[in-house]
Amino acid sequence: MTTADSVSLASLEVFQPGPKGWTLEEAAHLLRRAGFAARWQEITAAHRAGAAATIERLLAPEEPPAEFQETDELLHRVAIGTGEIQDLKAWWLHRMRYSNAALTEKMTLLWHNHFATSHAKVNSVRLMADQNALLRRHCLGDFRTLVHEISRDVAMLVWLDGNANKKRHPNENYARELMELFSLGEGNYSERDIQEAARAFSGWHVRENEFWFDRGHHDFGTKSVFGKRGNLDGDDIVDLCLEQEACPRFLATKLLDAFIGPHVGDVEVNLLAGRIRHHDFAMDKVVGELLRSELFFSPASRGAIIKSPVDFVIGTYRTLDVRPNLQKTSQLLAELGQDVFEPPTVKGWEGGRHWINTATILLRANFVADLLGGQRYGEVPAVVESVPTARRTSPKELIEHFASLLASRSLGEDSLERLNDYLVGAGAVDEQRSRKLLHLLMTSPEYQFG
Amino acid sequence: MPTRRTFLKRLGATGLVSLSGLPPALLARASLAAERHQRQGSGRSLVVIQLAGGNDGLNTVIPYGNDLYEKNRPGVRIGKDAVLKLNDELGLHPAMGAMKGLYDDGALAIVQGVGYPNPNRSHFRSTDIWQTASLDEERPDVGWLGRAMDEDDSEREGTLRAISLGFDRLPLTLVAHTANAPNVRDVDRYRLDLGGRDDADRTKRRRLMTELARPGSDSASDLDFVRRTSISAYDSADRLQSLVASYKPAADYPRNGLGQKLQLIAQIVAAEVGTEIFFVSLGGFDTHSQQAGAHTALLGELSSALGAFWSDLKGHDLEDRVVAMTFSEFGRRVKENGSLGTDHGAASQMFVLSAQPPAGIIGDHPSLSDLDDGDLKHHTDFRSVYQAMLDDWLGYPSQAILGGNYPRLALFS
């Protein structure tokens, strides 16, 4: 595939802007990928601040405003109080929509997909909220610590049958997913490794919603995993997994999928795996390096990822500065195939083309139509007023403005001309026209990419 | 044999498709596809009904005369007098009156003892196996009917070839590499809203949306995939909405979920738009405890919905065009458990509803004494049924799709 070749040319060297300097489009790309897109004012502010400073702020955001914190805490209390998972979903969506720490939320979602745990089985809002807090606490921290802690996370233990894992009847569920999905990937362990590792995790139980080391059910015998023998326990297994050659590569694949796109090759995986080892699994350093890289800003990476429902919906809210109805939003996300806190299986969401079928295309299009003309999901503040005066004197300028605000991939000349014809025929560039133009741009295939 | 022109005329005349609302290229493609069907004498549809959760086959087609049945199931057995007798050994669950009627009319076939080697008792894994028709540990990412559509995709782009009804996401059975099957959660939501009140402007934007989605030159790219899907979505939504508005059912459908879905399927079949594959699911068969009530309700829903569906099709002279089949990821253990329920098992039966089946019961009921770790043994691989559907009904090359040949099963006369 041609795109794959062009990615290989880029590297993890620090990105050097072209002759025109860092562009608005590059700033918009950064805010989309490392967050959930942004308003025009935020894009221009980032553009003025420069790439280095913007990335620094994403990695180490300022304290959130008091108003955000109050609403955040209130929504959290409501969710814990009602015990309704819908309320916890609303709480998280509020964070994704409003938090100034957008990368933190993006990384938390990435780990939620990686350590995919569903309320459908855990059946406790408190435990799902605790796990979410754990993921957020370490989302840009030490991946080793994250794996150690997730291994004794109560929601995870319920999800993968911790209590069923006993010395007499080892249950392999957690040991298998730890290797297959959390740290190594298929083909990098043997069935024997899993059986032995399961014994090491035996007795890692839950009692009264707390982690509990159940000595009576733990197997203290000698186990042998990846060629290492001894009275290994669960923490030893986690360490052994993280020491495997395959682990940084597996993690690199995940990060490249999320931040660069589907067309990367072995070269990039190996490069990034090397950096993960170099930084000893410190995710802030690894992700920071990735965001600053030539690879991140390379043309082949730009607009290469099919937007997940969260990226599509929350990104649209942020771009248009919508105050959303959070409950309706969470229902929509479920219909679009990304029901947060309820991933379909422990494998998480497949992503990519799996997000797109005719039904989800219609739902995405209808969401846009409703947002720009209806009330269901929230109100869009005056669109035309958000456009700098200089950019609304002609249809052509307006189209260019919205294109640079929205598009991760540019529409073809042909399409731009058609849009221009449509607007020219309609008279003045007013609010109504602007909304119809947005409707067409946001239902375009190009807008499904981020 | 209708020509392209008469097809267009018919569509226009019946008001099924609003000619003005559709781009000419698509309409031409749709009519070509329909013409092709006509030419091949096809226009056939397969309705796949998933009984999700693992249907207790032993309490569905019941070996009422067998002592071992009574002995293994003191709590959940269906009494001899209650079963709807098919012959001296077998009877249907008492909730299946309508299906008994279909059986008596010669429309219902029962394929017994269906399964696969080394049965897996995990819902997820076994459902994947049935949906992909593959036993490989490495799960293929496409389904068996998705592969069928991939086999012959280019000429039918733009037609509403396959539809799944009522799912949050496209079921694996229909997932394909290139073909796009719409996933219709419910008909009301499967439409394209444009917003605004100015009809002329809406028509303009509707046309622009199709133009902006026109595929480019790189058909393997993600962008062209999204473009194709978008056009297919807009087009199929337009058609579906107009179909639903103009159809009059010839039967009283039960007001249950499956009945409503099958009614919609009958409407789409009647519209003759070339849809070949339908996929629906009835869930809740995972009856680990207090099985009787739930199982009765589920089989009642299946039976009444199928009964109405068949009457409706007959009322429209469409029964020759449709075959329906059921599947479930596994049957249940022969011996009941301690909570008046049954646990995950293995082999079970499949139902096939069609206007030309061979007589009634196909294959022996699996032995109740010669068991595999407490489960019924299969004698018919489920892929033999798929093979018959592909080769003898839909007309697709089964070997390429199923990756091999299976013993031939004479499902169609």
TrEMBL record, chain A:
InterPro entries: DUF1800
Entries under Pfam families matching the protein: DUF1800 (PF08811)
Superkingdom: Bacteria
Protein name (record): DUF1800 domain-containing protein
Automatic annotation (TrEMBL), chain B:
Segment forming the signal sequence: none
Domain of life: Bacteria
Cross-referenced InterPro entries: DUF1501, TAT_signal
Pfam entry (one): DUF1501
Name the record gives this protein: DUF1501 domain-containing protein
